[in-house]
Amino acid sequence: MTPPPARRRRRTDGDSAAPRLALPRRGSVRRSQMITTYGVGSLIAVDNESFIVSGIDDAYRSWSLDEAPIIHEHRLARVLGVSHFRLPPGSEDTSKDGVRVRRFPLWHSCPKCQSLQHVRGFNPPAGKNVCTDCDDEPLVPSRFVMACEAGHIDDFPYWKWLHRKNRDEGATGRCGGQMSMRFSGRSASLRSILISCTCGVPDVSMEGAFRRSALTDLGVRCEGRRPWLKDALAEFCTQTPRTLQRGSSAVWQPVLKSALSIPPWSDGLAAKLTDHWEDLRSFSSRAEIEIYLKGAFRGDDSISVDAVMELLAAEQEEDPTREGDSAAVAVSRYQALRRQEYERLCSGNALRDKGREEQFICEPPVSDPAALTPFGVSRPMLVKRLREVRALKGFTRIADPESSSEGHEAALSLTPTDWLPAMEVHGEGVFVRLDENRLDAWAESVAVAARVERMRTNHDRILRERATDHAEMPPSPASPRMVLLHTLAHVLINEWSLEAGYPASALRERLYTDDTMAGFLVYTATSDSAGSLGGVVAQGEPDRLAEALHSALQRATWCSADPLCIETRASGVGGANLAACHACAMLPETSCEHNNILLDRALLVGTPEDPHLGFFANILEH
To answer: How far apart are CA 577 and CA 451, in angstroms?
Structure first.
């Protein structure tokens, strides 16, 4: 395997920047986890300590930029409003760079003396997390924190929780006593976690702390704290704080955006022109561009004027806001990015796009696609080489992990930056497209429309409950076309995991569904530059794909949870699924773009009462 690019230290003569202090290394994680699991604002446990990952502010150098390789993906960078991306550090790095963390939560307890207080109250030596009164007994970080949907996070208010019935509203808010935490040992429930104080108030357990209104009933409001950002002032916040377990997935969910490198951006030329775009955009004639390139790239004949002009023309054509901005600029630009990928996947590569440096190779199969005609599948495309860039745009807290919508995004930095942390992966895949005329005829069925409308109504309700401004609430993407393609991608991935030797977690879906698109890409990709070895592409040959589709649809006709699964009128979070469960249609969360919602296998194979409801009902009759 080819190792990931090394993080080289780049020095400039006369650099007057202050030297970076050598800080102790607290732990290490895989490079990919820095944008998917332990990104900015997340909590990470190292031994018996807990930390929060710092932001990417350039001014505070929380992330080392001296050794971070730059990743270029021009299309995605324009959508996200940055100039480039940077590779996070990883555990395999031999250099001393890394990402700074800050201790959080700050309230700790001592398992020996049972004292519960701010970590400063234990008076630990610098760099240690111990109770000095108990012969340097290691402290335990608070299991509980409070957070709100705006992304703020703070320590759990233990004092208010304990003194809620004995609090003097006119006092300063402290009784002067010493709190302690102990475990009764009677059970593993919250009722066994007891908080007490030497001031004499009755002991209180943690039972009920996770109720939605538990903190509101105490008069606790969100203070707007952002401990992952250095020197960040508290923000005014109207969101209701909630109690969370420190290790819960609800504490931090990444907001990831990705793009495939497609021609004309996928041959490496755009990366060479990174520092010259502003100048090149100002020229209006071929002669001006030619003169500029001769001066800027003296002696380099690999950059042709025609190629540069093609890039400039593509950039202008791809910008959906060129005729005026709209209220949904970011959404429209990201949808336009997907539409460009769809068009390229449908058409494949031109002959001139197949050079050694090309990062996108997409070709039709050599064999006759007639075997796929009964399935309503147009000619598949074999993506023999692809590159995907996945960038961390922000993160959310408390948002439903099974909702396909994004909550309130928290920022990665206090001040705007011109870069975002990202990973680039290489691999291969198979692009499957359904016949749009046949899709439209099927979607006109009253029964089909009624099932999808039920899902869309439930999903819209979820979005409405989470939206702060209903005017800006995104509509549910649920439509007959979308749900069908989404579910088909899932059952095909499950089939390949059984027949082709790929675990489902190694395969991903990429959906292309709207009024003008009707396809999906199933692919595998790793950070290794070699990607995979042709195993997925081989599944796209028409005869083999037809067999896989037929077998997948046959499996979809029956689920071990039937008849409950197929007859359910709502499943999943908020009823956003119908006939779909972990025994039939759901995938590992890393494989699904919509977090396992908006699925219904009845749209594929029908129901016992209405077999013709399914798009592929005619296949199963034979």
So the answer is: 10
Return all residues near 156 (Cβ < 8 A) that are at least 6 apart.
105, 107, 142, 144, 145, 146, 209, 243
- Which amino acid, 357? E
Output the CA–CA distances (angstroms, integers) from residue 296 to 22, 102, 346, in the order listed: 39, 44, 36
pLDDT for residue 393 is more than 80: yes
Enter the pTM of the model: 0.85
Residue-wise pLDDT for 43-77, tens only, equals 999 888 999 999 998 766 777 777 778 898 988 99
Condensed to tens digits (0 to 9), the pLDDT of residues 104-146 reads 999 999 999 999 999 999 988 887 889 998 888 999 999 999 9
How is residue 493 written in tokens?
A: 């991935």
Helix, strand, coil share of the chain (percent; to 5): 30, 20, 50
How many Cβ atoms from other residues are within 10 Å of residue 299's Cβ? 5
Q: What number of other Cβ atoms are within 10 A of residue 250's Cβ?
A: 15
Phi then psi for residue 387, to 5 deg, are -130, 130
CA-to-CA separations, 84 to 76, 218, 422, 538, 599, in angstroms, rounded: 9, 46, 9, 34, 35
What secondary structure, in 3-state letters, does 248-280 show?
CHHHCEEEEEEEECCCCCCCCHHHHCHHHHHHH
Helix (H, G, I), strand (E, B) or coil at 191: helix
Alpha helix stretches (DSSP H) within 8-67: 33-36
Task: Give, rounded to a whole angstrom, the gap between the first and last alpha carbons of the chain.
Answer: 46
